[in-house]
Design brief:
The protein has 52 helices and no strands. The protein is mostly helical. Among the domains are: about 90 residues, Tetratricopeptide repeat domain (Serine Threonine Protein Phosphatase 5, Tetratricopeptide repeat, Alpha Horseshoe); about 90 residues, Serine Threonine Protein Phosphatase 5, Tetratricopeptide repeat, CATH 1.25.40.10; about 80 residues, Serine Threonine Protein Phosphatase 5, Tetratricopeptide repeat; about 80 residues, Serine Threonine Protein Phosphatase 5, Tetratricopeptide repeat, CATH 1.25.40.10. The chain is globular.
Length: about 900
């Protein structure tokens, strides 16, 4: 019942009670399945895995269900290998399908096909088609999708057949996809089809047909209409039709994910039209607001300044470029500098070459100078033109090595491989190891990790003492980690040996920490500490081990490790971190005396007032609060002790914060008033608002809107105040000033002002459940009952479910459609008791009960509302009095 109705939290609670009360009943194993599925729906994946393991042992007759659910949870956590082992416990087609899904999720499409091939149903066939498609084998993908017959999958299969034809370049691809739309007029793939066809014809140079398909996107909902506007703007820009380009680009909403691209090209349009300074201003906004485009914008600004003769500005922007454009930008910056400040060394080398003496060394040194000046292309050209003139085999080998290095800097990895191989083939001992190292770098650039590791194995075997530029395994690990390839990073760090092994172990531990594998992190750090006790980061490793254990929930082990750390002779900064961590651990296990002891030890490590003392002071005051002791006396001691240092101000803030949370507004006000910290003033506004002095509270918040460190928080509090009181006219300007962060409030304010068309237009740009909720409310405001479907989809998210249920129920109640409302509102009662929509939902539920003649039930829920003593108490009492 509860699970089928989507009430997963309530389903979980009742299942737990049943299992605990009736562990040996015949249906208990089935209840266990319901419990696991309820937790899975709530994304409690770790709990699912742990519970499944217990149930497998206790109720082996249901182990297939338990293994299946456990595997699903492991896949959700990205534990693919573990999931595959779990699914392997299943039997027959179920096992093969699940294992295939797991391999597909981890990107091993060949392995996935191997398992899907063992199953004969259409889901397996569809999945196999997807595997071929991901592997770029479009012919076989098309054939496989053609075999799908089950109606559940035929629409998707037919769509993918059209995509395959497009990838293959078949002439009938376009007709196939258009016929697909005719066959399935409501298909969700319409936008993707138009986009794919537009991109296809654009790649073929057929711009007019590309435009036609991009224009079709304009009739669709976001994001496809925004994509269409952006792509059309870019096409017209490339054609030099600047006015048309700008007309499309400026229509992309600011809230759209494609606005950054549109803004970038709007800047380029202005530059092409000769409005250079305006164009630069636009591109500077791109740099500030859109990190993914900052490098392209910075490079373009550099070009404009260079063309205007403002070389210093040009260099500044070129040097600010990172990513793909970096080499090109650096070369442009180098070109500018060469015109005004050529490297004196280069002049000397050229002069040496003219004398005719030591030509080999002079030629090589010119190449080195060009390389150091980052003129990598000139370096390659110079060496290629002169390498045959070199008589010395050693200099020739070094020249090929330098050619490899220069090619590497240019990211011309294929040529880098060629030059390094020639250097290695010379067999000159002082060159070969550097050549092998360079090959490793080049293969890394090509992402051919297998060859990179093979080369490095040879380097390590043949030249065990070689140090070069550092361990490439270490570098490969860093590269893989930066790319999000954590398995490759882990493998690379583990392969580092020799003097850099401790550094690799340290980075491996940090990798585990960053990916949430805290127990593994602790194990690595502790092994590092044991194996390399004199390593410069050994003490830090022990601290990180303690921190990892804490994050893993093993507080007692964390305490043991950090105690051993602070007893050893370590630097003062690490001792401060250690004592603070130890104190926090004791606080978390409610040993407040021990917590206070170590917080005070932390303070003793400071010889003069420092902001670093604040966490310990805060910990002491909170510990005293937990012990029921008078924290004000201690707080006032700190205020007197640190008077005039700035710390006294922060202590007042901390005291005010604690007292405010306790509901002691009068004493909280005293400390917050005395503190000049903007955060304290923010809390003081809360005190005023909670004690009926609204004008004073609002005055503070309006002032703080102009204080950068708390402006956002002040604006949000003002918004909350006005929205709670339905003062939508006052709320709307504040929300508008907040830009993207204020969009949701703008929509809610517009709905409150009954400006439903404006609200709906703005809500179209919102994603997820909130977008669905506000679109639904806007449509209902326009008396369009299609809004109910939007609101229904918002009930799937905990964040929006209470409001969605209440608003939908209220709308139906006003329409006289009472049937079914009771069931919806009960969900708020049991699943969301802490929601701000609890009380209004219960009042509405009472009204429904009264319409149904259920007076006792109505009285009960109204009494619940009254007990909460919130702003709905008065309304609940009034309704209750009417009943009596």
């Amino acid at each position: 019942g509860l699970y089928a109705d989507g009430m997963y939290e309530l389903s979980e609670k009742q299942a737990r009670v049943f299992i605990q009360k009736y562990p040996d009943e015949k249906i208990t194993p089935d209840v266990c399945v319901i419990l696991l599925n309820s937790m899975l729906k709530q994304r409690k994946y770790g709990d699912v895995i742990n519970s499944a393991d217990r149930f497998i042992k206790r109720y082996p007759q249901k182990r297939s269900d338990f293994y299946r659910i456990k595997g699903d949870a492991q896949v959700k956590l990205g534990l693919f290998k573990e999931a595959i082992r779990t699914y392997s416990r299943l039997k027959g087609d179920d096992a093969y399908t699940k294992i295939g899904d797991a391999y597909y999720a981890m990107g091993d499409y060949k392995k996935a096909m191997e398992y899907f091939g063992k199953v004969k149903d259409d889901y397996a066939i569809l999945s196999t088609g997807w595997c071929y498609y991901k592997l770029g084998d479009y012919e076989n993908a098309y054939k496989t999708f053609s075999q799908v017959k089950d109606k559940k999958y035929t629409e998707e299969a037919e769509y993918m057949k059209g995509k395959c034809l497009l990838k293959i370049g078949r002439k009938d691809a376009e007709d196939t996809l258009l016929n697909f739309i005719k066959k399935y007029p409501e298909t969700p793939y319409r936008g993707r089809i138009y986009l794919s066809l537009g991109e296809y014809f654009e790649s073929k140079g057929n711009i007019d047909r590309a435009k036609n398909y991009y224009k079709k996107l304009l009739r669709l909902r976001p994001p496809f209409n925004h994509i269409g506007l952006t792509y059309l703007g870019i096409l017209y820009y490339n054609e030099g039709k600047l006015d048309s380009a700008y007309a499309y680009l400026e229509k992309v909403p600011v809230t759209s994910q494609y606005f950054g691209n549109a803004l970038y090209y709007m800047g380029l349009v202005k530059i092409k039209k000769g409005e250079k300074l305006d164009g630069i201003t636009v591109l500077q906004q791109v740099i500030e607001d859109y990190p993914g485009l900052r490098d392209y914008a910075a490079f373009r600004i550099g070009e404009v300044f260079e063309g205007m003769g403002k070389t210093e500005d040009a260099i500044r922007y070129y040097l600010d470029v990172k990513g793909k454009e970096r080499v090109k930008a650096l070369l442009r910056a180098g070109d500018i500098l060469m015109k005004t400040n050529p490297d004196s060394g280069l002049s000397i080398y050229r002069k040496a070459l003219e004398t005719g003496k030591d030509r080999d060394l002079a030629l090589l040194k010119i190449g080195v100078a060009l390389f150091k000046m980052k003129k990598y292309r000139d370096c390659v050209n110079h060496l290629n033109a002169n390498i045959k003139k070199l008589r010395s085999p050693v200099y020739k080998a070094r020249a090929y090595l330098l050619l490899g290095d220069a090619s590497l800097k240019l990211k011309d990895y294929k040529n880098a491989v060629k030059y390094y191989n020639i250097a290695v083939s010379t067999k000159i001992k002082e060159v070969v190891p550097y050549g092998l190292e360079g090959l490793g770098w080049a293969y890394t650039g090509l992402k051919d990790y297998a060859r990179a590791f093979k080369v490095l194995d040879r380097l390590q075997k043949e030249y065990p003492e070689f140090r070069g530029k550092g361990s490439l395994y270490l570098t490969l690990g860093d590269v893989a980690f930066a790319m999000g390839d954590y398995k490759r990073a882990e493998k690379s760090y583990k392969r580092v040996k020799g003097r850099q092994e401790p550094e690799a172990m340290f980075r491996l531990g940090k990798l585990y920490m960053n990916t949430g594998k805290y127990r593994k992190a602790a194990e690595v750090f502790l092994n590092l500490r044991k194996k390399y006790s004199v390593f410069e980061k050994s003490d830090l490793a022990l601290y990180l081990a303690s921190l990892s254990l804490r994050k893993a929930g093993d507080i007692y082990s964390s305490i043991a490790q950090v105690k051993s750390l602070i007893k050893s002779p370590i630097d003062k900064e690490l001792k401060r971190k250690g004592t603070l961590l130890l104190a926090d651990n004791y606080f978390d296990i409610a040993e407040y005396d021990s917590a206070i002891h170590y917080y005070e030890k932390n303070l003793d490590l400071y010889t003069k007032p420092d902001n670093g003392m604040l966490p310990a002071i805060k910990g002491i005051l909170y510990s005293l609060k937990k012990k029921g002791r008078n924290l004000e006396d201690k707080g006032n001691d700190y205020i007197r002790r640190f008077k005039g240092t700035g710390i006294d101000d922060r202590v007042k803030f901390i005291l005010g914060e604690i007292l405010l949370n306790e509901g002691d507004y009068k004493r909280a006000e005293k400390y917050l008033k005395d503190s000049t910290a903007p955060e304290a003033q923010l809390l003081l506004a809360d005190v005023y608002l909670k004690t009926g002095r609204d004008n004073e509270g609002l005055k503070i918040l309006k002032t703080l809107q102009n204080t950068p460190s708390v402006s956002k928080e002040a604006s949000l509090k003002l918004l909350s105040y006005y929205m709670d009181r339905k003062m939508y006219k006052e709320a709307l300007p504040i929300a508008e000033k907040m830009g993207d962060e204020g969009v949701e409030y703008r929509v809610k304010a517009l709905i409150g002002l009954k400006r439903f068309p404006d609200a709906l237009k703005l809500a179209e740009g919102l994603k997820g459940c909130k977008g669905a909720l506000y679109r639904g409310l806007s449509l209902l405001g326009l008396d369009d009952e299609s809004g109910v479907a939007h609101i229904d989809s918002a009930t799937t998210c905990d964040e929006t479910a209470p409001e969605a249920i209440y608003e939908k129920s209220l709308y139906l109640y006003k329409k006289g459609k009472v049937k079914g409302i009771e069931t919806e509102l009960v969900k708020v009662r049991y699943l969301y008791p802490e929601s701000e929509y609890y009380s209004p939902s219960m009042i509405l539920l009472a009204k429904v009960f009264l319409k149904q003649g259920k007076k006792q039930e109505a009285v009960k829920v109204l009494e619940d509302v009254i007990k909460r003593k919130d702003k709905y108490e008065k309304e609940a009492r009034s309704l209750l009095n009417n009943i009596h």
